[in-house]
Amino acid sequence: MGRKIRSALKRDWQIWVMVMPALIYIIIFCYGPMYGIQLAFRKYDFAKGITGGEWVGMKYFMQYFESPMFWSTLKNTFVISFFSLICGFPAPILLALIINSLRMKRLKRVVQTAVYMPYFISTVVMVAILQILLSPSTGVVSNLLRDMHLVSSNVNLLGTPSAFVPVYVLSGVWQSAGWNSIIFIAALSSVDGQLYDAARVDGANRFQQVIHVELPAIVPTIVILLIMNMGRILSVGFEKVFLMQNNLNLPVSEVISTYVFNIGVKGGQFSFGAAVGLFNTVINFGFLMIANLISKKTADISLM
Amino acid sequence: MEELSRRKLSMSDRIYYIVVTAIAVIALLVVIYPMYFIVIASFSNSNMVNQGLVILFPKDINFYGYRKILERADLWVGYRNTILYTVIGTLLNLAVTLPAAYGLAQPNFKGRRVIMTLFVITMYFGGGMVPTYMLVRSLHLTNSYFVMIIMGAVSVYNVIITRTFFESSIPIELQEAATLDGCSHFRYFASIVLPLSKAVISVITLYYAVGHWNDFFTALLYLNKDEYQPLQTILRNILISNQAMAGTTGAGEGGYAQQYADQIKFAVIIVSTVPVLCIYPFIQKYFEKGVMIGAVKG
């Protein structure tokens, strides 16, 4: 046995050398923090380090569950993710079907190039653009909405709690629908041409071909992506919410990740922050498992 | 041929194509216009911008905003830092990701399954923000150039994309022939695999580089000294301070300050975003391939 391992090592040592840097990185920077999760069950003690504090069990979890911030952060996180999923998930599929249907090659290429572009804009710039376009006195979008009598004059959309989620979600769709459509466009391009011919012979018009040929062809891709998105239902991107936060919209914009940052990292309540973060991770993992199970049972498609 | 197929279109198909083209054009305008607006507003008279007079073309062209930001030393420090983080960080990313992906693509490699499982778990489960922060702090990496380069050195997602590419696009016979000729893994990887993998290398380079360029989170968490701050942080500071300036001067005679604040904002946005938008059309042709490879094994 020992000799077998030794000969395998001798044969594969170059591969080990090649894999080692990545493995070491993952162990230190991904598994290291996982080991550090015990902080959530310990009272943090500066002198004794992360793993040396007194064991307090579920104390910090209970403290979170009993605080008024529990429901408000949970609700805010869920609402933002839910609407991001509802609007953000179908948009790229529709966009891909539309792009795939374009007959003018040049228009198709122009549309593709353009819709991918916003994805490369940083979150900082994205939020700045929102601030400019939605500025109450001078913003182009604000003026437009006012002229259409959709909002009252001088409304500050970024400071209005009820506008926070729509602004967040729609700007998210604007930024990433194009990029997310690539995967569906790629799936559509691999549809067998004979399927279209067969549909045409059966008298299907172009729209019916979309429904009966193209949609079924991308269903596996849709399901896989849906499962992966379910696993992120409670992990709202930290950056954008954080950057869009202000005192006026805080009641709807304090999500779990920003709460962890504000209270755990900035506020120095490390154990409490770690507990809230772990709660979030566990819920996410649960959602992922449930979605995976459902799709395995119903459609025989799963991640693992 | 085109003529022929056009004549064959039925009425319902014709309507379908008209509707689809119309929607595509609207989507195009919705995406393009805000970006176009920022560009023309950056060198227009900002009073006119604020009054809603700049819609299709720049008016009263001037470069005040650009001239003003040239004077800001902190912006150039941020620029230099970000270029540094992006170039060195991306090189490190590639140096770690490509060999690892090659190793994990070897069917006979004994550690393959275990290591792959270890990697994939981290995509769905992690320690979270606070334990990661504590770890980085206890390694004394905060407030250093190093933290900006090392964080995110390996993206498991990119390892998987690359591995799948190696498995599916490089013929196994090549390796068999190379092994027969006594070619080592190192040499085979460097002289055969890498030159054949331009598509996937371009895609992951883009992913990593854009990630570094746009990174705000790492700096927010781990840096508090000005000299290390990347462009995104400086950008945020400029944008916030201008916001405050515009806020305090009020609506009345504050027009002057507001005017310049806005123009600086527009210029800063352009200057920080254009480098990224310039690179990406060159790599665009690889996108679909790259994203599709990633999707196969998700």
Number of DSSP E strands of chain A: 0
Which whole number gives the mean pLDDT of chain A?
87
CATH superfamily of chain A: MetI-like
CATH topology of chain B: MetI-like fold
Helix and strand element order of chain B: HHHHHHHHHHHHHHH
Helical content of chain A (DSSP H or I, runs of 4+) = over 70%
* Secondary structure tally, helices of chain A: 14
Structural Rg of chain B: 25 Å
What is the mean pLDDT of chain B? 85
The name of the CATH topology of chain A is: MetI-like fold
SSE arrangement:
The complex is a heterodimer of chains A (about 300) and B (about 300).
Chain A: H1 2-35, H2 59-66, H3 68-88, H4 90-101, H5 105-116, H6 123-133, H7 140-147, H8 161-189, H9 193-201, H10 206-230, H11 238-244, H12 250-253, H13 256-266, H14 270-299
Helix pairs in contact in A: 2-14, 3-8, 4-8, 5-8, 6-11, 8-10, 9-10, 10-14, 13-14
Chain B: H1 2-8, H2 11-42, H3 46-50, H4 64-70, H5 73-105, H6 112-124, H7 129-138, H8 145-150, H9 156-169, H10 172-180, H11 185-193, H12 198-213, H13 217-222, H14 231-249, H15 255-297
